[in-house]
Design a protein that fits this description.
Layout (H helix, E strand, L loop, with lengths): L2 H12 L30 E2 L5 E2 L2 E4 L26 H13 L5 E5 L6 H18 L5 E5 L6 H10 L2 E3 L7 H7 L5 H36 L21 E7 L6 H15 L3 E6 L17 H16 L4 H4 L13 H8 L6 E2 L5 H4 L7 H10 L7 H6 L4 H4 L3 E3 L2 E2 L8 H8 L44 H7 L2
Parallel strand pairs: 3-4, 4-5, 5-6, 6-7, 7-8, 9-10
Antiparallel strand pairs: 1-2, 10-11
């Protein structure tokens, strides 16, 4: 099977893993090496089916020894199986990078032979990228549950972010749908990664302290003779994340969000991702209803955002008596409707924490209000200029004591009717139909005199020499 066929299979299989986000780490370019990384994120591209991707998102292999009911790559499924050779994957990543298609790599895999064997393949590919090519771009690597600590240590030294998929929200569901996996095998690498990140952070602080002391000492000597310290790669400097499948099992949003909160506190997760169950297999253990719970996934992300950035406790977002999020009203608006005694809030005097509770006012908007009211009296016009979602916020605020909700009654049902709205899915996928003039596919044979010198890609062979010969 050639590289193009492998890429088609393994990139398509990787789309079910959503635990992919902005880099969260800064690393500048360096002479003689490739790439850099910005914590603000990585440029976006769009696949043919409308998915927005920031990285080359691919599996090392779609072969797997496990038989998870929900997984398209389970061992009992028929279909083509293939595995990248480490050199193939590294060369492919660099080829895409040099064409400015990507700025990093998201690498996961089915379990080939064993977790350790699979991880060794991933480590070899990343080692070629980091050490042979000098690649300094962003790499997100999936840790395989059951991998030995020694291999996890090596993988973490090559990746910027690591993740271990929790898969399902409870041990009972894991036993039902993924009997080959255990809670211990999943949580152990999470704990190991957390410990590795903390130890690397402590080591980095000691090195910085030592460096400052050395700089002070050398300032009285000839610093030209001082040798620069050799760069030591940090262990997963962008932290770790995880993903769980929503809708394949009967757990409520209350259980899911409480589990997410525990993961943030226990393992210092950067992000918990929710993936709506997609019916890709026929199995009596799976739900008979093939509807994909995308609206529910959306509300869970909104609730997660409130907990991470708005200071909400999980018990404020949801409670056991109402264990599922309202699909018609977002979680923040729902909290406001259930706590009308907290409102209306006077925007010219309210503290920052109170402004964050107002539907339509976000973190940025609250900061802008705090800054602007030092020199201006804020009314509707000023709030709109600040970018506040005034159509939502007006029902929960006053400006100089005047209620902004107009004739709408300040009661739950009347306000809910104004705030309830169907979730609008993104339409950015239409961009995938647009082709940038002059943009070349990695696998299309170019015309004579083009980038590859008239030779098809397959004729270039592999390895750095071949890529350097054809790269721009």
């Amino acid at each position: 099977m050639d590289i193009a066929e492998k890429l088609e299979l393994l990139a398509d299989a990787a789309k079910y893993d959503v635990a992919c986000t902005s880099s969260g780490v800064d690393r500048s370019a360096q002479k003689g090496k490739l790439g850099n990384t910005s914590a603000a994120g990585i440029c976006h591209s769009f696949t043919a089916d409308g998915r927005c991707v920031t990285l080359l998102k691919v599996l090392m292999s779609n072969a797997c020894i496990y038989n998870c009911a929900y997984c398209v790559n389970r061992i009992s499924n028929e279909g083509k199986r293939t595995t990248f050779k480490p050199r193939e994957l590294a060369d492919l990543t660099i080829s895409f990078y040099r064409r400015n298609y990507i700025e990093g790599l998201f690498l996961s895999s089915g379990v080939v032979k064993s977790p350790d064997f699979t991880t060794e393949l991933m480590i070899e590919a990343l080692s070629i990228l980091r050490e042979e090519y000098g690649f300094r771009g962003y790499i997100h690597a999936k840790a395989i549950p059951g991998t030995s600590p020694e291999l996890l240590e090596r993988l973490g030294s090559l990746a910027d972010r690591m993740s271990v998929n929790l898969e399902l929200p409870s041990q009972k569901s894991l036993n039902l749908l993924a009997p080959d996996k255990s809670k211990h095998d999943i949580l152990s690498p999470m704990a190991f990664i957390k410990q590795g990140i903390e130890e690397a952070r402590d080591t980095r602080r000691l090195m910085q302290k030592s460096k400052r002391a050395s700089t002070t000492y050398l300032s009285t000597r000839n610093t030209a003779m001082a040798k620069p310290a050799r760069e030591v790669r940090q262990f997963a400097p962008a932290g770790q994340s995880t993903q769980m499948i929503i809708g394949a099992t009967p757990e409520s949003d209350y259980q899911i969000l409480n589990l997410s909160s525990a993961l943030y506190q226990t393992f210092a997760m950067k992000r918990v991702f929710f993936s709506a169950y997609l019916p890709v297999n026929q199995d009596k253990r799976l739900p008979s209803n093939n509807a994909v719970a995308l609206d529910r996934e959306h509300r869970l992300y909104q609730a997660d955002w409130l907990m991470r950035f708005y200071g909400f406790d999980v018990n404020e977002v949801i409670d056991e008596s109402n264990p599922f999020l309202d699909l018609d009203v977002d979680p923040k608006a729902n909290w406001a409707l259930n706590h009308l005694d907290f409102f209306p809030v006077e925007v010219n005097k309210a503290p920052y924490a109170s402004l964050l509770r107002v539907p339509g006012i976000g973190v940025r908007g609250a900061k802008l209000i705090i800054r602007a009211r030092k020199t201006h009296v804020l009314r509707e016009q000023e709030l709109r200029k600040l970018g506040i979602a005034y159509k939502r916020a007006q029902f929960f605020i006053t400006c100089q004591g005047k209620y902004q909700g107009g004739a709408v009654a300040f009661e739950r049902e009347a306000l809910r009717s104004r705030l309830a709205a169907p979730i609008q899915g993104g339409r950015h996928g239409s961009r995938s139909a647009k082709i940038t003039p002059g943009q070349m596919s990695l696998f299309d044979q170019p015309q004579a005199g083009a980038l590859w010198g008239g030779s098809p890609v397959g004729a270039l062979g592999s390895g750095p020499a071949a890529l350097k010969a054809g790269a721009a």
